[in-house]
Amino acid sequence: MHIPDGYLSVEICALTYAIAIVFLIWSWKKAKATYSQSITSLLAISSAFVFAAQMINFPITYGTSGHLVGGTFLSIILGPYAAILSMTIVLMMQALFFADGGISTFGANVLNMAVIGVLSFFIIQLLTKNSKRKSWFFSSVFVASWLSVVLGALACGLEIGFSPVFSNAGGIAVTVPAMLFWHVLIGLGEAAITTTLISQLHRLQTPVLTGLRILRGGKQNERIP
């Protein structure tokens, strides 16, 4: 889903950069209000884990493969605001040192994977609003994880399809179905991995699930020690 340089028009690059910056400023302010202490070390550890996890690919079909994106996972670990910052750090490291995603398209990649991926937290919040059952919570994590990948792929397909580079190849009529077809399958892998990790952390180390505390408390600005 990482979009390289040269795939998007200048206008779409500028628009996605602007949207990403707005969300990053919003996330930074909300994260500072949520945590009473510096979250630098927490962001470093969580970002390093997701960075490493994204290196592990699982086969899909016809030689394609998928890997964990991690947006929903981070949102349950850190809460949604710190999770957007953490995922942005991962994407920045990949773009700067591994050429995985471009610099001009960095705003689009942040929007598709950090913003859309992490805002799946609010899908879980909506689905679990009237239920305290663990089974329902884990089912909601699965659905939100799958949707985070599918919606991110939809945004990616639209951004590429509306750019002139792909206009002669059919535009969004080609890019959107192509992105959705594969990422509907990849999203199942994302959902299975995320739900497994969260269920094990819930069983063994529930205190580390800051996002779960926010879900249960129902307070977005609850200060975390």
Shape: globular
Report the structural category.
mainly alpha
Q: Write down the secondary-structure element order.
A: HHEEHHHHHHH
Helix content: 55-70%
The share of residues in extended strands comes to: under 5%
Largest sheet, strands/sense/barrel: 2 strands, antiparallel
First-last Cα distance: 35 Å
Strand order of the largest sheet: 1-2
Number of strands: 2
**Sequence stretches where pLDDT stays below 50 over 5 or more residues:** 219-225
Description:
This protein has 9 helices and 2 strands; from the N terminus they run ααββααααααα. The chain is mainly alpha-helical. A two-stranded antiparallel ribbon has the order 1-2. The N and C termini lie far apart (35 Å). Residues 219-225 have low confidence and may be disordered.
Compose a concise summary of this entry.
This protein is an all-alpha fold and 225 residues long.
Fold topology:
Layout: H1 10-34, H2 40-53, E1 57-59, E2 65-67, H3 71-78, H4 80-98, H5 106-118, H6 120-127, H7 134-161, H8 172-204, H9 210-217
Antiparallel strand pairs: 1-2
Question: Which short descriptors sum up this protein?
Answer:
single chain; 225 residues
